[in-house]
Amino acid sequence: MGLLDFFSGKKDAPALDRLPSGSFTVDRDGKVLTSTLPSGFPEATLRDIGRAVVEAMVSAREANLPVTELVIHFSGLKITAKEQRGGAMIFLAPIR
Amino acid sequence: MATQKKILILDDEAQFLELCQELLSTLPAQPEVRTASSGAHAIALLEAEPYSLLLTDLRMPNMDGFQVLAIVRRRFPALRTVVMSGVTEDEYRNRAYAMGIDLYLEKPKTAQDIKMFVDCVESLLLREETGGFRGVQSKTITDIVQMESLSQSSVTLKFTNGPFVGKIWLVNGDLMDAEVGELTGEDAFKKIISWKSGTFESLPGDPTHERRIMNSVQGLLLDSAQMLDEMAAGEVPGSGGEKARTTSPLAELSRHPGVEFVVTTAFGKGKEFEHFGCDTPDKTAAWAANTAERFNQLGERIRAGTLQWVATSGSQRNAGLAVKAERVLCAGFQRGRTSGQIQETLKKMAAQWAS
After folding, report:
1. Gap between the Cα atoms of B274 and B65, Å rounded
2. Domain assignment of residue B27, given as a range
3. Cβ of A16 and B100 within 8 Å?
4. With contacts defined as CB-CB under 8 Å, which chain B residues touch A93?
5. Would you call B89 exposed, middle or buried from its count of C-beta atoms within 10 A (0-12, 13-18, 19+)?
6. What integer pLDDT is reported at residue A1 of this predicted model?
7. pLDDT exceeding 90 applies to what percent of chain B?
8. How far apart are CA A88 and CA A86, in angstroms?
9. Assigned domain for A80 exists
10. Which one of B28, B147, B226, B264 counts the least CB within 10 Å of its CB?
């Protein structure tokens, strides 16, 4: 059965990250203000998402496409962002 | 002579790679099997030469399987991909299928599982060779319709080609009707017949369905074959050889409902672009290129998978972005379109743009 043991899974393999579900708000600089995401969820990732969303909204305004809502659809996650006085309220929903 | 198939296996366990390499080298197709122990190495190998199939694990250090799949989907959209993992949760299986993989296999535990694994890989390699519709490999739609007609079946044939769904109704082998989008009858039949690949399902017949096609199956198939030959030769179908006028592909894309303008560009600064009907194409192209690249990188960093589309709503105008292999399609929409409507239209536009 030695051969089959190789197939039966890894002992030290890193766990896969779960995609987040919840919402948070960011200010106009992308700083996270409030969040309903689990406390264990890395804040750096939230900042990353928040900054990308706010920057996209600012650059859209500069391109004469002012944005009040932005929906970004990945194969595994949907991000919906609503503009709020320069900042944004952002909803994260994994795609099942 | 057929070229030798190449398979790339990605896993961080050297012994597992060695075993798989040995197993797959014995396939009847006699593929060349290469291995990589990290995502970066696998991407480098894929960039160096074309492969028929990538088999990847999910749980790996540094770059996991989802990150590799996201890059592969973007850079090598035609490459067939198989996930082979010990991860059994549906959440990850669904996520992998959503990224466009061909097959999700759990790592084999029994001799029977190993045989099935080998058979699945062989079948995928053959599928690449023969093309055709998933469900009935190596058969064209013409073959399928002829087969059902000759066996006098009462059946509803459902074909899916990207976002488009077409149906053909047969009752006792007679062609009753066809439907795709807003087209019905013979026009819809000819449209469906022109599809080269997709998925196929055979649904129960509907003898009560209204008959809108009076022509025979053979007559219509002949007409359709002639039309396809003429189109392939760049002629206007039915014109006796008159060459078709070329319209801008972007103008064609702008015919979708609610579309005001279309801009295409590549990731980066968006300096090189094409557009149709846009007032400020340079600014729009720069925004589209920059936004698509920004969110594509975000997707890779947070492991959310491939960026599929972006929709914006605003006080003046709505817009949508679709991405295909580092190219960006940006469309402006009339106000009042919902993000769902934008998504549906973008899907159709992206499929048309990619073809």
Report:
1. 35
2. 1-126
3. no
4. none
5. exposed
6. 44
7. 10
8. 7
9. yes
10. B28
- Residue A7 CA to chain centroid, in angstroms? 33
Strand partners of residue A93: A78
A74 touches chain B (CB under 8 A): yes
Between CA B151 and CA B141 the distance in angstroms is: 15
Q: What letters, b where the CB count within 10 A reaches 16 and e where it falls short, cover B266-304?
A: bbeebeebebbebeebebbbbbbbbbbbbbbebbbebbb
Here the ipTM equals 0.84
Is the Cβ–Cβ distance between B168 and B180 less than 8 Å?
A: no
Using alpha carbons, list the distances in angstroms from residue B251 to A4, B49, B95, B255, B349.
57, 36, 35, 7, 11
Does any domain span residue A63?
A: yes
Contact B109 A10 (CB under 8 A): no
Confidence band, pLDDT 50/70/90 cuts, at residue B127: low
How close does chain B come to A33, measured CA to CA in Å?
A: 20
pTM of the model: 0.55
On whether residue A12 sits in a domain, the answer given is: no
Is residue A60 included in any domain, yes or no?
yes
How many angstroms separate the CA atoms of B130 and B145, rounded? 19
CA distance B303 to B300: 5
**Span A22-46, pLDDT tens digits:** 999 999 888 899 999 888 888 888 8
Answer whether residue B325 shows pLDDT above 90: no
Contact A74, A11 (CB under 8 A): no
